Fold this protein.
Amino acid sequence: MMPKHPRGGEPAVADARPPRLVLASASPARRRLLEAAGLAFEVLPADVDEAGIKRRASADHLAPQAVAEILAKAKAEAVGARRPDCVVIGADQVLALEGEIFDKPQDLAAAREHLARLRGGVHVLHTAAALAVAGKSVWSSIAQARLAMRPFTDAFLARYLASAGPAICRSVGAYEIEGRGIQLFEHVDGDHFSIIGLPLLPLLGELRRRGVLER
């Protein structure tokens, strides 16, 4: 017989399952991070007006880390509204050089200009993750990393772009630091997972707290 609720009425649920998990991002790097950590999840990229959000943030003179958090929350909320029975992960990265926010390069020519400006200097990468349930943000975390690019030659830059190909345009920094892009740097100060795309340890901790992952 089905076990009864202690006060009578509806049967007790013997095997309650945690909420389903959704990644609101098309980023292969974020997907690989979650897969390597052993998470089961669905990928459903968010459709939000990132350019409009950034324009409003610029008009309000918001700091780069605030912009990253707003974008991560917007993505989580957009997908969360479509999947109210799920816990949705939103994420975004904002790269700032001396306070100026960089967008993802549109093509390899833009990536060349992008990297030439970052060369020989230190930029800050702001990485935000957010969780949404039923379309409302319930948690967020932001991590900062400082990355010093070495003063590489134009010849090295040309070879790097030729070997890396258009895939680097998926990265806000026009580099994939988990691969050959590491050769662009002389010093990195920050969490490895956050640089790749997610503040993973805080995220896993919150998912455990919410019962999505086993404690």
